[in-house]
Design goal:
The complex is a heterodimer of chains A (about 300) and B (about 700).
Chain A lengths: L1 H8 L9 H4 L5 H16 L11 E6 L11 H7 L3 E5 L6 E7 L13 H18 L3 E7 L3 E8 L3 H9 L10 H10 L4 E7 L5 H13 L3 E8 L1 H5 L6 E5 L5 E4 L5 H21 L3 E6 L5 H17 L1
Parallel strand pairs in A: 3-4, 3-6, 6-7, 7-10
Antiparallel strand pairs in A: 1-2, 4-5, 8-9
Helix pairs in contact in A: 3-5, 5-6, 7-8, 8-10
Chain B lengths: L1 E2 L12 H14 L1 E4 L3 H5 L5 H4 L4 H18 L2 E2 L14 E8 L9 H14 L6 E7 L3 E8 L2 H10 L9 H14 L4 E8 L18 E7 L7 E14 L2 E13 L5 E9 L2 E10 L3 E6 L3 E2 L5 E7 L9 E6 L5 E6 L10 H8 L6 E6 L6 H5 L3 E5 L7 H11 L3 E5 L16 E8 L7 E4 L24 E7 L4 E6 L4 E8 L2 E6 L16 H13 L8 E2 L3 E3 L3 H4 L15 E4 L5 E4 L7 E3 L4 E6 L9 E6 L12 H8 L6 E3 L5 E3 H12 L1 H26 L16
Parallel strand pairs in B: 4-5, 4-7, 7-8, 17-18, 17-19, 19-20, 20-26, 27-33
Antiparallel strand pairs in B: 1-3, 5-6, 9-10, 10-13, 10-14, 11-12, 11-15, 15-16, 21-23, 22-24, 24-25, 25-26, 28-31, 29-30, 29-32, 32-33, 34-35
Helix pairs in contact in B: 4-15, 5-6
The chains are: A alpha/beta (about 300), B alpha+beta (about 700).
């Protein structure tokens, strides 16, 4: 909620984050810079905030916190339990896992889900690069399509790969993400951009092992407003973009049920990801990117504190 | 109804297209690409609703339009000639000329012809009128210009073959008359026949009125093998005092495939008496000679039958025979004749294969009534003409039908009164100039000389005449032969029922040498036959002929007894088919139409004579020649004069204008089908668009859905 408020407060700057505007920028490099620089200027905060190994702050112990992080000296002075929080390590690995399955090509408002994901991936990679992180990229559908290993020098390659990513094949999360986990030897931040058209349990099974390997996983669930609202009225044949299966549909009769199901789906994903300490955000592709960026920064900040 | 392009009917398979389109088109046309149907599948949705046909009217329109299109491309046309095609232009006057000659009895031709006629009448509109004309050698309009289809069909159903031959002229003339009398503008003549060439004379003088559509319907077979009894020759002779008959049957076969043996049977009075086998080539003839049989009864009915084939009517030939009667000739040569004065006459008459002459030579001039009653011909051979009562009896004899031959010689003398009996006055004898005269003029059409009319059938010019009596023929007389110097050789006078002939030279070798010429014998025979009033009996008639039983001149050819059918007695004729024809007593003609093949029997009603008067009737054997002419030839000859004639497909011919119009009509159905299909398609398009607009997919917020592929 706070993020949305910030977005509205800095509405003037968010014009650079509007997908409709961004779609007119041809290069991802320029786009990422436009997004990140404009966004950070609006924040009025140091882009390097919390990005060091130095002490950050103390926080009161809460049940469940790691007792190894208790500042015993402070306990001696105050007789209270405080945790000593440090800034996260710099030069962390930032890996973008982008779903390029066929369903990602869907879009009814200027940009497709893949375009939106492309903007996000480029922007956050640029942002991470500026944070001196090692950035990497993996595109996947039912297998790894392109893989750019994390490196401080791979931003252009990532942007290039993102630019030519083409959706075409059916997607499946488990195998490519398992393969991705095998390839990442160092823990880092993994940003997963997908529409997650799989059962929540299967999605969690596909991602949980990344968390288990120590990666911080941020999940952006990209959905077109049409997928959320299902605004169709007339009877038509609906074709699954990935399998090609067609089903005759009379929308009037099932729009409510559809909305209920998609709502249950996202709620279930949120519940499962939260339970696994995975940051999960549903993104409406008709909305500006700032919400996603704020969400990312918030997550980074939170991760840094946890460490 | 037929199709010019029946393969287009395969297009009917396309009927499935509208149905499939109906079930699938909307899905195909309004396909929405959606990222995943994962959630939609979870909704308990009854997709069967889309598989139903919701717009039955639309589907029906599409299917019907397709059927009409296919039918139009198949080019349907009316196969049944002109039937029903003229109704669009108003009422029609249709004349059906149905050939019912006996050749139509070949195989199933008659049934096929009747079927064609029925189809014509069944195709009539209520406003049309039709006539049914039967064609054989004559013509009969059974129904004229009637709209009563029931009567027309009944007439066709009850029609039967005749025993008559084919003659196109009368029936076509009758059809022309009916068409000319009609006030209807659309006239059609349908000629249903086997179109035998034998019935076509070339120009019958028939011309249908302008605007008449002439449609010949050929009833034919690919091959027409047929054998027929072409003729039966009946020869008489006497053996051991009995008259015997010998029958020879000539069998003709045409268009056969292989030689074959056929059985031929001779029947007398219904009893089979002889059987012969004849070997027939595929095309050729053979003669079957039966053993002689004795003829003892009058009006003996005989038949020669060939085992039946596809045309049974010409496989039998009937005849009626009666025993022959010899002509009695009495030759009077006077009391002191020249030697051998009657020798040649006697010899000539006694030499006869048929032994039909009985000759008595008497040396006197007296004639009793009994003599004359037993005599058919009296010959006065170089004697003076009788006088007194004998002359009166002789005159009465001649007037009653007897014959008198006066042979003039030295002893013949003229006296007053003879001019009332003789053809003229004869004068003295004179020698011909230059030694001899020859016969220079003969009245060949006369029965005496008709036998010699053909070249080589008798040369009278070889005979030399040295002397003869002059003769001046009177107004009652007729010169039958003249010498080359112009003098009369033979003159005739009819006296009452009888005939008087005067020969101005002798009948021996004294004044001429005719008696030693080959022509003498037949000449004498012919004169005696003529004088006796002998007529060769007619063993059979041909179907279609008419017999006047009250005409003695005609009855002599068939009646064996005098006064066989007296005019004051009612008669009834039993036909071969079992019917009867009443012939009431009358002073005038009493005609019996011989229409059926077989034996007609005539007798007074209520009687059952043992040997009633009978005549045999046979079919005209020329009708068994089944060669067909080109129907177009006939149609062209009778089509309206002012219009050309072109051949139409299928063997029919039409006048040029009507042919084009008719053909167009017959095939014009496709236009109507095409227009109907287009109308249906337009209607379908309108309805479909309306439905489509009503169901166009749209978002609730008014925006449109733009599927993206990138």
């Amino acid at each position: 909620m706070a993020v949305r408020e910030r977005s509205s407060i800095h509405g003037a700057e968010t014009q650079f984050l509007d997908p409709a505007v961004l779609s007119r920028i041809s290069g991802l490099d320029l786009l990422a810079r436009t997004v990140v620089d404009g966004f950070l200027q609006g924040l009025h905060r140091s882009p390097h905030l919390g990005m060091s190994l130095d002490f950050a702050e103390h926080r009161e112990y809460m049940p469940g916190d790691d007792i190894r992080r208790i500042d015993w000296k402070l306990f001696g002075r105050t007789d209270r339990f405080y945790l000593k929080l440090f800034e996260a390590e710099t030069a962390a690995n930032f890996m973008v896992a982008l779903d390029v399955s066929k369903s990602m090509s869907f879009g009814t408002h200027t940009v497709t889900k893949l375009d939106y994901a492309r903007y996000l991936g480029a922007s956050l990679s640029y942002f991470s690069q500026k944070q001196r992180d090692r950035v990497g990229l993996a595109t996947f559908d039912h297998e790894i399509v392109e893989y750019v290993p994390p490196s401080t020098r791979h931003l252009q390659r990532i942007l290039h790969t993102l630019a030519r990513a083409e959706p075409g094949r059916p997607g499946k999360l488990y195998d490519p993400l398992m393969r991705l986990g095998d390839n990442l030897y160092h823990r880092g931040i993994i940003l997963i951009l997908s529409d997650f058209y799989e059962e929540p349990e299967q999605v969690l099974d596909s991602i949980r092992h990344l968390r288990a390997r120590g990666h911080d996983v941020i999940v952006f669930h990209l959905l077109d407003p049409t997928e959320l609202e299902f605004p169709f009225e007339s009877a038509a044949s609906f074709r699954d973009m990935e399998s090609g299966t067609m089903i005759p549909i009379v929308p009037d009769q099932l729009v409510d049920e559809y909305r209920t199901l998609i709502g249950q789906h996202t709620e279930e994903l949120a519940r499962l990801f939260t339970g696994s300490r995975i940051d999960y955000t549903v993104l409406d592709t008709s909305k500006p990117l700032d919400y996603a960026l704020f969400r990312y920064l918030s997550s980074r900040e939170k991760m840094a504190r946890v460490r | 109804m037929g199709l010019l392009a029946p393969l287009f009917l395969l297009g009917l398979v396309g009927l499935a297209v509208p149905i499939v389109v109906h079930l699938t088109e909307k899905q195909r046309r309004e396909v929405v690409d959606f990222p995943s149907l994962m959630f939609l599948r979870k909704i308990p949705f009854r997709s069967s609703r889309r598989k139903k046909i919701h717009h039955w009217a639309l589907l029906s329109l599409r299917a019907l339009a397709l059927v009409l299109l296919v039918a139009a491309f198949s080019r349907p046309f009316f196969e049944n000639d002109v039937v029903g095609i003229g109704s669009a232009l108003g009422p029609r006057e249709v004349v059906v000329v149905l050939d019912r000659s006996y050749s139509m009895g070949y195989g199933d031709r008659w049934e096929r012809a009747k079927t064609q006629a029925r189809e014509v009448f069944e195709g009539l509109e209520a406003s049309d009128r039709a006539s049914l004309v039967f064609m054989s050698k004559g013509a009969e309009a059974l129904l004229r210009s009637t709209s009563d289809r029931g009567r027309l069909l009944t007439a066709v159903d009850t029609a039967s073959l005749s025993a008559d031959g084919t003659l196109y002229g009368p029936a076509l003339k009758l059809a022309q008359t009916i068409l000319e009398e009609s006030e209807y503008p659309n006239r059609e003549a349908v000629i249903i026949s086997d179109f035998q060439r034998t019935g076509w004379k070339g120009d019958e003088g028939v011309a249908f009125p302008p605007g008449t559509v002439v449609m010949p319907v050929l009833i034919s077979d690919e091959a027409t093998p047929n054998a027929a009894i072409a003729s039966v020759t009946l020869n008489r002779d006497f053996f051991s005092g009995q008259e015997r008959m010998t029958a020879l049957a000539r069998v003709v076969r045409r268009q056969g495939e292989a030689p074959e043996d056929r059985t031929i049977v001779l029947e007398l009075d219904g009893q089979e008496i002889q059987t012969q086998s004849v070997h027939l080539d595929p095309t050729g003839s053979a003669t079957a000679t039966f053993e002689p049989f004795t003829l003892s009864n009058v009006y003996t009915r005989g038949s020669v039958r060939l085992d039946s084939d596809a045309l049974p009517q010409d496989d039998e030939l009937h005849f009626v025979l009666s025993p022959g009667r010899a002509m009695r000739t009495l030759v009077l040569e006077g009391t002191s004749p020249r030697p051998d004065a009657s020798f040649f006459i006697q010899q000539a008459l006694e030499i006869s294969e048929e032994a039909s002459f009985q000759v008595e030579v008497r040396r006197s001039t007296s004639l009793s009534a009994a003599d004359l009653a037993a005599t058919d011909v009296v010959v006065l051979n170089d004697v003076g003409f009788p006088q007194g009562p004998t002359a009166d009896r002789l005159r009465g004899f001649v007037e009653g039908g007897g014959g008198l031959l006066l042979v003039l010689g030295e002893r013949s003398a003229w006296r007053t009164g003879l001019e009332e009996m003789l053809p003229g006055r004869f004068g003295p004898a004179r020698d011909h100039a230059r030694g001899a005269a020859r016969l220079g003029h003969l009245d060949y059409p006369h029965p005496v000389f008709e036998l010699f009319v053909e070249p080589g059938s008798g040369d009278f010019a070889q005979a030399r005449f040295f002397r003869s009596r002059d003769m001046e023929v009177g107004p009652e007389g007729r010169v039958l032969a003249q010498f080359d110097d112009g003098s009369v050789a033979l003159a005739e006078r009819r006296l009452g029922e009888g005939v008087v002939l005067v020969w101005t030279s002798t009948m021996d070798a004294f004044w001429n040498d005719l008696a030693v010429q080959p022509v003498f014998l037949p000449f004498i025979h012919q004169m005696m036959r003529h004088l006796s009033g002998y007529r060769e009996r007619v063993p059979w008639f041909t179907a279609g002929q008419v017999l006047d039983i009250a005409d003695p001149a005609g009855m002599v050819f068939v009646a064996d007894r005098e006064s066989e059918l007296p005019p004051d007695v009612d008669q009834v004729a039993l036909t071969p088919g079992g019917g009867s024809v009443t012939l009431p007593a009358a002073a005038g003609p009493r005609f019996l139409e011989l229409e059926e093949q077989g034996f007609y029997e005539v007798r007074p009603p209520g009687t059952n004579p043992e040997r009633p008067f009978a005549v045999a009737v046979n079919v005209d054997v020329t009708e068994s020649e089944l060669e067909a002419m080109d129907p177009a030839e006939l149609a062209a000859a009778v089509a309206p004069r002012e219009m050309g004639v072109e051949m139409a497909a299928g063997g029919g011919t039409l006048s040029a204008e009507m042919q084009a119009r008719n053909q167009e009509r017959r095939q014009s159905l496709w236009r109507f089908l095409m227009v109907a299909a287009l109308v249906l398609l337009l209607t379908e398009t309108a309805i479909s668009n309306w439905i489509s607009r009503a169901t166009t997919m749209r978002f609730k917020d008014g925006g449109s859905y733009v599927p993206s592929t990138t």
